[in-house]
Amino acid sequence: MYYNGAKIFVVSFIVSLFTSIIVCVLFFFVIMPLTKPSGDIVVPDLLGSTTEQARVITETRGLLLVVGGEEEDEKIGENLICRQTPLPGSMVGRKTTVTVFISKGSGKLVLPDFKGQGLSEATVKLSEMGLKVGEVKSEENSEVDKDKIISTIPPAGSRVKKGDVISVVLSRGVELVKVPRLIGKSLSTAKRLIENNGFKVGNVSWEVSIDYNVGIVMRQSPGAGRMAKKGSAINLVVATVLE
């Protein structure tokens, strides 16, 4: 009986010892690495720094710096660091590589003023800027030559980005209309003819005349048969009598 008891004790002791060893191995080599920080160096915040500044900061902490590329960023200025990995505040070991990305700026462009330019010329310039020509409209305009650009949508000076579509408004110039003959017509008839032909009544003056009855148009400017801009004014001189 004593022999059996001793044997059981020895076996139990060996099993307990073996189990303890396994637990210690698991704790120190499996559990501890999972629970403790991956290193003792805090990754600095490099956002907004230049590459040169970031390199000095990382080297003083025993870290390595690599530029991963360039990215557009609306908040951080051009040529400054806009993103990094690992993130600021991360715990890492010595010689860990910190990858940074450099801002190319917001990618916004200032739309030029194309007023007075031809559509083909503007299309080339817009294409070079990475912009596209959208709808092309036309309207009458007395200031800009026919088939030249009056304006764009959005207007000149607007901030745009590559890939945006720009609509263009072209000038049809001003329509020329033949001036009707008004001499010999009554003032009321002359006014009606002026308006019906797309003009407007300009200055109306009165002069004494022995050749025309009262209220009859004696002279007009511009003269009958002339080509004038639609919407322009026609001046009249109307006969009256000396009182």
Automatic annotation (TrEMBL):
Per the UniProt entry, what species is this protein from, by scientific name? candidate division WOR-3 bacterium
Recorded superkingdom: Bacteria
Q: Please state every residue range assigned to the domain named PASTA.
A: 36-104, 105-172, 173-240
- What keywords does the record list, in alphabetical order? Membrane, Transmembrane, Transmembrane helix
List each coiled-coil range.
none
Where is the chain membrane-spanning? 6-31
Q: What is this protein called?
A: PASTA domain-containing protein
**Matching PROSITE patterns:** PASTA
